[in-house]
Write a structure and sequence with these properties.
Elements lengths: L9 E7 L8 H9 L5 E5 L9 H6 L3 E6 L6 E6 L4 E5 L11 E8 L2 E9 L8 H12 L2 E2 L2 E2 L11 E7 L11 H4 L3 E2 H4 L21 E5 L4 E8 L8 E7 L1
Parallel strand pairs: 1-2, 7-10
Antiparallel strand pairs: 1-14, 2-4, 3-4, 5-6, 6-7, 8-9, 10-12, 11-12, 13-14
């Protein structure tokens, strides 16, 4: 697997666009479209302040939007591969944790389920809320496959988790995707120090909190970081083959 971009069957970008991004949604969206990905998982789309949906649609993408109340956050999935969208709801009536969005597409003779993840941040959420969210995520997969029907994902599908996990690689909860039988794309690409976030007060990124985890049955071709205009995160661009 490569760190540099090479031809692949499907390209996926997951990125946190930053609530409060001061750039125009047209500038942010055009920068994303310039990457020519097949699927975009976009966190903190900020009720479309950060995403020009008409620009995506005019470039042949179908969009799914998930609003997480009562925050101003929303998740957008854009795809030019025909698929099925769904919502994986927060199962707690007492905890303010985000629901997730899912996309299910044909893949080889089976299907691939991609789940957009935005887990609670330690600065805003309790340890109980964070641990609960990871435990809920763990219920989705085992041995690299989906284990229950929820949202648009179906038992037996290949599984990808992509998004902002708000946890460092050495956090105990970050063992959970590996316990689900998934591979960390950056580690497979021999780039485990793939720093994706800063506080914007410093010129260099110093923390890795954004990830893509994939079933080992999926051939990971490359994994690299991309700039997201105006965001405190870098995006992750991953190529996969059938």
């Amino acid at each position: 697997m490569e760190n540099d971009e090479i031809d692949s069957d499907i390209t996926i970008i997951n990125a946190n666009l930053l609530i409060g991004n001061k750039l125009s949604k047209e500038e942010i969206t055009q920068s994303l479209l310039n990457e020519n990905a097949d699927i975009y998982i976009l966190i903190e789309a900020a009720c479309n302040h950060n995403v020009d949906t008409s620009l995506f649609k005019s470039n042949g993408y179908t969009l799914f939007q998930l609003k997480n109340e009562p925050s101003s956050d929303n998740l957008v999935i854009a795809t030019r591969i025909q698929g099925e969208f769904g919502v994986i709801k927060n199962q707690s009536a007492t905890m303010s944790t985000n629901s997730s969005g899912s996309l299910r597409i044909p893949f080889n003779s089976l299907h691939l389920s991609i789940v957009g993840i935005h887990l609670p941040a330690p600065i805003y959420n309790s340890k109980e809320e964070i641990d609960f969210s990871f435990k809920e995520m763990k219920k989705l997969g085992q041995n690299g496959r989906v284990v229950r029907d929820v949202g648009s994902i179906i038992q037996g599908d290949y599984l990808i988790l992509a998004g902002d996990f708000n946890s460092l690689p050495n956090d105990k909860n970050m063992k959970i995707p590996l316990e689900m039988g998934l591979e960390d794309a950056a580690t497979v690409a021999a780039n485990p120090y793939q720093y994706t976030w800063s506080t914007q007060r410093y010129p260099t990124d110093f923390a890795r909190i954004d990830y893509l985890f994939a079933s080992p049955d999926i051939q990971l071709v490359y994994n690299k970081l991309i700039e997201i205009p105006g965001s405190d995160h870098k995006g992750i661009k991953t190529g996969i083959d059938y």
